[in-house]
């Protein structure tokens, strides 16, 4: 992709200017913040909704840096991480490209007999399973031999960063020309997966049909999608009656398309079986933010994403028969296209992405509790882009095998417990304010506190602002009521900010080398790692233990208290 280096260079320049490290903000007086945690008072459950990830390009998972990152994702919550990928049914030779992938899973003989080829798709799923990851299995897109695309329509797209996004719509986006063959393909694939991975394993998977059929990814009517969906679900359930099936992973809350889908799967005539309704075990939609570039800096669109989440929750609750179903936000991100360049996307390498992640997940948890939605997951549509320039500015979790700061926030999430504790911050903005205005005035210094399964208290603290400009640090006083052992308890601090667990900062300090050598690579890997630090606790009246810490703007911190 060398012709696009000028675009990447622009992103790097923006990232270099905008991602100011913590020490650059030291001139401003720190803002005092008080966070209080009552470890004796529970505040409900905190489901691990963050444990889902995904990418357009399925073949990257089997490549050197992709395998390395898959292994790291698997360590986050062993046995409970899910991965979703587009293009698993595409025809092709398995060569990865931007927003493209293929497995050559289906072809036909000259007289129209099916040829099934599981080799490439097995390699991808084997890679997941070797890391303990389960598929959130997207059934899509249409194999070339089954595509009903008009004669002369190219099958594989030629999109690359900088070109019109609509160019990705090509022959793979059409309905099947033979629905029985389509159903049989899905049946044979599901049966093969059960034979290869075991029934109990495949029962854990999510089976979801297509992607954003209300957007760019479907070249037919909504009713034609419902038909394609019905046949795929029927093929899946015929091979595995207990398969977990759902969808439709609509773009945004889904609008009229989602209304029609929900009506169809509950009260419509099933195109494949003739019965009323379609089996539906979970519902899925997407929610994205909308960053902009103005006045020389990135301004994030947290409010935009949260409003879309709330619209999606409202849709999933609109049909009483489905209102209790698990919900997955199948893509939940600061913006829409992981591979697309642009100055508004210069947040990706540094701490804007990591602090946004902490602040947004906190509000999604809060929204789900408010709406009483059975939220099972919020899937981060970010992975890696193999053999691209260092810190090229794509929305990803690592660059050339070195973790970005945002991945460490997911490691922090993994240290949180399932039992939420009562916690308040006098600088945390109310949910309604963030949904209405974003974080455009005072910064948002917020917290989530939990108790872990082994009895520790884990307190997450973020310092977020929509505008990527320098600002004062937060001087946090953390008051912990009811900690066993009080000031004698052991506390550990992890940080992600401009100076901690940040390979991007380290790379810039090296002079932004185009090709780091062996020693520099090791230094970058080391710089990406969160290093635990002891945090002193002091006693106070009323049995409250107190700690102080400074959290830079766009920083995230995790304090874990292990009572003696």
From TrEMBL:
The name of this protein is Xylan 1,4-beta-xylosidase
Query: Where is the secretion signal located?
Result: 1-24
What domain of life is recorded for the organism? Bacteria
Q: Which residues cross the membrane?
A: none
What UniProt keywords are attached to this protein's entry? Answer: Glycosidase, Hydrolase, Signal
Domain Glycosyl hydrolases family 39 N-terminal catalytic intervals: 34-528
Listed GO molecular functions? Answer: xylan 1,4-beta-xylosidase activity
Q: Which family does it belong to?
A: Belongs to the glycosyl hydrolase 39 family.
- Keyword Hydrolase in annotation: yes
């Amino acid at each position: 992709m060398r012709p696009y280096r000028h675009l990447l260079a622009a992103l790097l320049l923006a990232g270099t200017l905008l991602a100011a490290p913590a020490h650059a903000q030291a001139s401003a007086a720190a803002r005092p913040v008080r966070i209080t945690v009552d470890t004796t008072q529970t505040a409900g459950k905190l489901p691990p909704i963050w444990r889902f990830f995904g990418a357009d390009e399925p073949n990257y998972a089997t490549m050197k840096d992709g395998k390395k990152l898959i292994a790291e994702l698997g360590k986050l919550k062993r046995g409970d991480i899910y991965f979703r990928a587009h293009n698993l049914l595409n025809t092709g030779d398995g060569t990865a490209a931007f927003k493209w992938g293929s497995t050559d899973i289906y072809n036909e003989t000259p007289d129209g007999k099916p040829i099934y080829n599981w080799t490439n798709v097995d390699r991808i799923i084997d890679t997941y399973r070797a890391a303990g990851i389960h598929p959130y299995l997207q059934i899509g897109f249409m194999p070339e031999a089954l595509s009903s695309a008009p004669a002369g329509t190219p099958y594989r797209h030629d999109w690359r960063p900088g070109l019109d996004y609509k160019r990705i719509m090509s022959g793979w986006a059409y309905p099947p020309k033979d629905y029985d063959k389509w159903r049989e393909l899905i049946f044979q694939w599901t049966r093969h997966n059960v034979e290869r991975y075991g029934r109990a394993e495949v029962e854990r998977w999510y089976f979801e049909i297509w992607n954003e059929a209300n957007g760019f990814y479907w070249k037919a009517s909504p009713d034609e999608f419902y038909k394609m969906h019905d046949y795929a679900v029927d093929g899946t359930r015929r091979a595995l009656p207990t398969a977990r099936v759902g969808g439709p992973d609509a773009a945004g809350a889904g609008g009229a398309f989602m209304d029609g889908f929900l009506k169809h799967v509950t009260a419509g005539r099933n195109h494949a079986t003739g019965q009323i309704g379609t089996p539906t075990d979970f519902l899925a939609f997407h929610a994205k933010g909308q960053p902009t570039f103005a006045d020389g800096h990135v301004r994030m669109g947290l409010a935009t994403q949260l409003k879309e989440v709330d619209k999606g929750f409202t849709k999933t609750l609109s049909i009483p028969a489905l209102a209790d179903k698990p919900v997955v936000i199948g893509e939940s991100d600061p913006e829409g296209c992981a591979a697309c360049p642009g100055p508004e996307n210069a947040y990706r390498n540094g701490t804007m992405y990591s602090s946004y992640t902490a602040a947004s997940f906190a509000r999604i948890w809060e929204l789900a509790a408010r709406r009483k939605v059975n939220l099972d997951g919020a899937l981060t549509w970010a992975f890696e882009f193999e053999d691209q320039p260092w810190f090229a500015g794509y929305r990803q979790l690592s660059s050339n095998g070195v973790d970005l700061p945002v991945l460490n926030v997911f490691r922090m999430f993994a240290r949180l417990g399932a039992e939420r504790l009562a916690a308040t911050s006098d600088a945390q903005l109310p949910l309604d304010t963030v949904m209405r205005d974003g974080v455009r005035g005072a910064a948002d210094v917020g917290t989530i506190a939990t108790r872990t399964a082994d009895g520790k208290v884990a307190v997450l603290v973020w310092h977020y602002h929509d505008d990527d400009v320098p600002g004062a640090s937060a001087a946090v006083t953390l008051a912990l009521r009811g900690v066993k052992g009080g000031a004698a308890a052991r506390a550990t601090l992890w940080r992600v900010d401009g100076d901690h667990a940040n390979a991007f900062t380290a790379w810039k300090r090296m002079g932004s080398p185009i090709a780091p050598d062996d020693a520099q690579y090791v230094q970058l890997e080391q710089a990406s790692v969160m290093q635990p630090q002891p945090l002193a606790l002091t006693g106070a009246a009323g049995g409250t233990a107190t700690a102080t810490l400074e959290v830079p703007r766009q920083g995230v911190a995790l304090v874990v208290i292990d009572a003696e």
